[in-house]
Amino acid sequence: MTTPDTRHLRLLLALCVGLASLGLLWLALGATRSALELWRELAGLPLVLRLGLIALAAAFLGASAWLVWRLLHPRARPPRPVVVADRAGIEKRIERLQSREAETARFQAELEELDRRAAAEDYYIAVFGEISAGKSSLVRALAPQAPVDVDVLGGTTTQVSHHRGELGQRRLVLADVPGTQEIGAREREQLARDEALRAHAVIYVASGDLTRAQDAELKWLRGYGKPLLLALNKTDQWSDAERHELLATLQRRYAGTVDRIVGVRAGGSETVLRRLSDGREETLTRQATPDTVALREGLLACLAASPQQLEQARASAVLGHLDEQLGSAERGMLERESRAIVERYTRRAIVGALAAVAPGTDLLIQGALATSLLRELATLHQVPIKQLDLDAFLRQATLTLRTTSSVILAIAGNALKAFPGLGTLGGGVLHAIAYGLIFDSLGRAVSQTLLDQHRFDQDQAQATLQRLLTEQARERLTHVAQLALQSLRRDNGSEA
């Protein structure tokens, strides 16, 4: 039974629907009238002009339809281009690091391993994936009779096992690498990634739908441009319908990322329940029969490229990774050498402050010393700096120091309090620590800017300087105070 309120609401809805229908009908009639008028006008035009307008309209409709189709069917993003590092350039950078007493043994070992594998006629296949995905079982299924060669790579105590096998007429070396995504195992995960880059092809093993972390790993591997297979392991744990649905899902998601997606059963042990004739039941553990047919076919297709192409892709991946590692090593070397320069000038500033006859509270930068510091840092980083830029930066830094002089003195006093019995030595030591803090902050600010931007950015350097002058990092303050006290003892003829 409908109430009066409900009846009124229904009448209102019916009125709205009726008005909307009339509006749509009116729009349809208007569009039809416009189309007929347009058609009559087109009919009155010359044939050539009429055909041209029809062709233009058809092209516009075709382009619109194509755009809609592209929006509904986005193209898979291509993998990021592989940075092809130059072998000669890599070797020169290693030599440059050696000449500056940096550790380069791991880079040399990587190049030697690259050459050793290039000289062999083996195809290196890395079996990669998360822990407990069944990688080791899959390796044994692909090479059941192969002896195991265990190598220790990368200078660590973690092992990668190499199993020799065959595929058609090709000699394989299957690398069983440590599983990724294991808590507290960054070293083993890095070893797995390094081995994947050394391989001619990679089999990524998963035991179900991929997680976000696995998705990122798969795309990272794809970025190096070498053959990549996605193997869905443990397919016997699903029904046929579930297995087909999961494989179809992976195919839709990763068809543009991997070369092949296959289902595989690596074997291993399985538990079955057996019913005896007397009605009793017993549980048995037996070896499951592996099924690697689809994987072997997919791997064979991926290795169909010429050996030269496969080796070139492998070398590009290794050299590209070496380029990244050398970049980190070079940055670390620059940081160490920058710290040494900053400390040397900080000592000079402290000595100059201790030698002053009447140190004041207006802490201005010693111009010549500061200019030399900045020029030496610029030379180290191979960044040219104009004298005008230096002068402008030092003028701005002087204004900053004038506004923060009391803060710097207070910080220097706090640093001196860390050494019992020395807090009453007087204004000379306090003045020296303050000057040390100024030069330490100035050098760190400029060095950080040169490292980050590979150019002299006055704004960033000024902002970093102001932050360093006002922060009270205990380790840095203690270090500057120690430098000041060492200089004081030398001046007094004491043992450093």
From TrEMBL:
GO terms for cellular component: cytosol. It holds the Pfam family MMR_HSR1. One of its GO terms (molecular function) is GTP binding. GO terms for biological process: tRNA methylation; tRNA wobble uridine modification. Residues 125-234 form the G domain. It comes from the Bacteria. The chain crosses the membrane at residues 51-72. Keywords: Membrane, Transmembrane, Transmembrane helix. SUPFAM superfamilies: P-loop containing nucleoside triphosphate hydrolases. This is G domain-containing protein.
